[in-house]
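Example record

The entry below shows one chain as it appears in the dataset: sequence first, then structure tokens.
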Amino acid sequence: MKNNQKIGILIVAYNAVTTLGKVLDRIPKEVYEEIDEIAVFDDASKDETYMLSVGYKETKKLEKLSIYLNEKNLGYGGNQKKGFNYFIEKGFDAVVLLHGDGQYAPEILSDMYSPIINGDADVVLGSRMMKKYGGALKGGMPFYKFLGNKVLTTYQNRALKMNLTEFHSGYRAYSVKGLRKLSLSNCTNDFHFDTQIIIKAHHNNLRILEIPIPTYYGDEICYVNGMRYAKDVYHTTQEYRKAMSGKKKSPIYSELYVYYPLKLYPFSSHQTVIKLLNSKENQRILDIGCGDGLFSEYIKNGNTKVGVDFIPESESIKKNLHEYYQNDLNNGLPEGIKEKDKFDYILMLDILEHLYNYENILDQSKELLKPDGRIVISLPNIANIYVRLSLLFGRFNYGDKGILDRTHLKFFTLSSIKKILKEHNLEILKQKVTPIPIIEVLPNFMKNNIGKVFNFLLYLITVPFKRLFGYQFIFIIRNKV
């Protein structure tokens, strides 16, 4: 124990009968005195790794050394998951991942866990690409592996907006508090588990620190298929990006999937409303159905931003909203919000179609407006040409998002929306329309240039034929005088 914190060493081993004893021998005495447990997880080795480990423990009389044998092979990632859960359940504070094949240096274990124990990092990654120990090539890394490592790391840094020198080292340390924030059970059991855990750590804003480590390549057996590994790393990185953009719900990143990503391209509903709100300051703004508060991030900080939704208050909500009320909107607006100051703007963006009783929300919102206040509503157009053509061919297929989102309980046309607003004594001040978001499905390299031109042309067609081509309608309304 160091600084009153429990430190664990997780050694993952597979067919390591010739190397594991040497790895254990190299652990410095001062490290052994500081740590609380070394746990060897033998992943159902085909050799005598387990028996050697047990014999080593008995011979050396090491009370802090624990040996575990998996009944079946869990895979590189699966073995890590089992080991991490072991230390989480035992209430440790930090855990270092070390390989039983001798590829990583036990001599610098304290360098790995000290930043976590001292509160300087949540994740420590050992990097062979840093120059303190001479770099990867001088340490014996084959050139083709060095090149592949560099190419993959460069790609991942760009894709994930990170700046690591190496993604592919297996020498790591984690704060157990940080591990608890990550969903590891749905990660792969294969070798690209190491990439997935970095992605999830980065997404959860864990503090990641790199430190230089020596490179060692000996006669250990490598079980990694390099080409398959590169393919898996590429695909899992792409999976994450698609999950974040709402394009694909991946089982690996299901807990991170953004169901309703912001639409920030020209003529979109979010972009239109952002321009409207940012034309003024010192406004009090209520976002009904605010989700994780991501939209409010784009509203000027000079405004007071208040949100209501059913989800628990998250870090994003705390960051982007001044006030938040957790409430099921099917039961109306919370009483607490009715007791506060009235609002300049009340937003109902892509929310009324999800509610059983949207009329109740409309009526209650009217009472929360200042005399010159405005309500901004965006709703999908069920009479869009896509839906019409689908019906022509006998199809009405629900999806994860879009006009036929399976969570939509109500459907609206331009005429029905106007009728509803009139019935609730609301006056339409402005009406806008958005084009079909084809730009969202274009490849990234087309979105900035060709995509924007195409989106503009589509908008020009949509305006005069809004009932047919309109994707969403946006209404700026007020209480009828």
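Notes for this example: Residues 7-256 form a domain with the Spore Coat Polysaccharide Biosynthesis Protein SpsA; Chain A fold (CATH 3.90.550.10). The longest strand covers residues 369-380.
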